[in-house]
# Entry
Amino acid sequence: MSLIAIIIVGVAIAGIATAVAFTWNPGDGNGQNNYNGTNAHVLVKAKSGLFFSDSLQDINQTKKELSDRENDSWEFAGSALARGSPADWYQIQGQGLFLGAENTDVNAEWAGIFAMSEDDYATLYHAVISIPDESLATGRNLNVGMYIQTDVLYGVINYVGCVANSTPRGPIWVVESGLGNSTQVTQRDRLWVDSSRNQSSTRDCTIVTNGDNLFMTYLDGELVYSNDKLDLKMPRPFNSYLETQVINSDQMVYGKFYDYYSTFNEKIKVVKAPPGGVVQLIGESNKILKTEPVSEQGIAVMSIGEYHFPLSAKIVVLDDNEKIEATTTERLQVFGGDIYAANTIGPFDRGLLEWE
# Structure
């Protein structure tokens, strides 16, 4: 095991230090950086922020194969099955997870099929959501969305969601929340709606929520909704639902999902950094993506929810004289919720490795 690997596993070990030859050059004023030689600590990942990930497109799997997998991370169910309406699901390598339903009951408003995750304690949830062209071509009303919802044992259905509504005139993208009882949603609030014409039928959706007061949604890396004064009534753990719902359709219509992951936070944290300094996130071509100050407690917290994870980046810590205090030796695969240590010498407060 390498020295860096030992540090990552045992960050609290006192007296371990490494150095790398780098210096900091502020650059050309356009977010570009250069490095020259001097000594600095190696910044290490003390705790990973990734909770769960599933590309949903790694292999081909039939409905039976998906349903028969033991100890799988997804459970398939929904109102379509409960009502005896046809439902289908399968996975295609390189394309995604397809969830389809018919609604043959003219008296039923919706029939749906979903993939439900195991209990999840994350804060950020991501998936690419798509209404395939063949489903759009039917002109049927259907919803395809990712919903973060109260655990099935909680007893009531409260949720937040990122949803594509397919209508005869094209897709409408909606950010919504809802409250309910043990069997159904009784209050649904549309918090943000894009009903413009000629929208994409596939979008990259990221939901951030603490289940209490905070709900944020990014679409294609753009923050479209943010509110920290809600009353969501969603205690952890949550379940993620990838779901297709259809109304009054005698044809099988599908939604498609891929690139699912959840992380403990939308932010990263750097601890044991020099107070008064700054932390910078460096992307491709040495471009500065983010800069955050270091607090008196030696902590810097940086929001990165708009980026796709893992984000390939370096992290550089500067002291108050713009001298490099710590840096990663190579480009990292960064996830929201990651916690990094700028210095591993001396005692280490385990509380620094937690998120509030």
